[in-house]
């Protein structure tokens, strides 16, 4: 008996955007497939994305697995956005299949972060600074997982992790992003910059 999760090529390409490419924490270079709860989770330590996906669960021994990022990218390579990918997990490993192509890999051995603890229990709306590259990646991943082009919102939370969501889609996908700590004095930086004399308005 095996446990199964069905997703699309677009979703596969989206979820890996929240995982790490190069990290000494090898367990971040993959996606957590939670077969029991029908959920995919990926994080690189700066952003996190969790999505609800249809699953078939029958074997507790294979309730979850960290699937390597490169295996997910390989099975999605060359596929059309809405082609289906079937991911199953049993005693022989994790099997990824699409249109007759099949890849079998061993799950990454390690303990995935306690990702539920990352989600804030409340947000303060206190503005924060964010790395725009992280927001861009998370937004692209979010849109792939929800199949909508609407950008997500950031619920600011000061120096703590901020919630990323889209109204009407929070039951399908939700994310977290860590803020940047501001370095330096912006007023001093402005005073240092010589913009030259202001030009008079044209008559």
Kindly summarize this structure in a few lines.
Helices cover 18% and strands 29% of the residues. It has 203 residues and is α+β, with helices and mostly antiparallel strands.
Report on this model:
The protein is of the alpha+beta class and 203 residues long. It has four helices and twelve strands; from the N terminus they run βαβββββαβββαβββα. The radius of gyration is 20 Å and the shape is elongated.
Give the spatial strand order of the biggest sheet. Answer: 6-2-3-4-12-11-10
Question: What low-confidence regions span 5 or more consecutive residues with pLDDT below 50?
Answer: none
Computed structural class: alpha+beta
Radius of gyration equals: 20 Å
The span between the termini is 81 Å
Q: What share of the residues does DSSP label as strand, in percent?
A: 25-35%
Mean pLDDT: 92
Q: Which percent range fits the helix content?
A: 10-25%
Q: Strand tally, please?
A: 12
- H and E string: EHEEEEEHEEEHEEEH
Question: Helix segment count?
Answer: 4
Main sheet overview: 7 strands, antiparallel
Shape: elongated
């Amino acid at each position: 008996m095996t446990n199964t999760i069905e997703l699309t090529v677009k979703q596969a390409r989206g979820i890996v955007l929240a995982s790490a490419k190069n990290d000494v924490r090898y367990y971040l270079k993959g996606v957590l497939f939670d077969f029991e709860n029908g959920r995919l989770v990926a994080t690189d330590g700066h952003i996190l994305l969790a999505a609800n996906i249809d699953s078939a669960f029958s074997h507790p021994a294979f309730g979850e697995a960290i699937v390597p990022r490169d295996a997910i990218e390989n099975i999605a390579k060359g596929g059309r956005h809405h082609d289906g990918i079937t991911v199953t997990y049993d005693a022989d490993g994790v099997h990824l299949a699409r249109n007759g192509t099949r890849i079998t890999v061993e799950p990454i051995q390690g303990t995935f972060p306690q990702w539920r603890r990352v989600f804030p229990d409340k947000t303060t709306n206190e503005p924060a600074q964010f790395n725009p590259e992280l927001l861009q990646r998370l937004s692209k991943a979010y849109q792939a997982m929800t199949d909508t082009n609407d950008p997500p919102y950031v619920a600011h939370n000061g120096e703590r992790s901020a919630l990323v969501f889209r109204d009407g889609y929070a039951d399908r996908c939700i994310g977290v992003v860590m803020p940047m700590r501001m370095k330096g004095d912006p007023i001093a930086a402005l005073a240092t910059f010589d913009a030259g004399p202001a030009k008079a308005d044209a008559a």
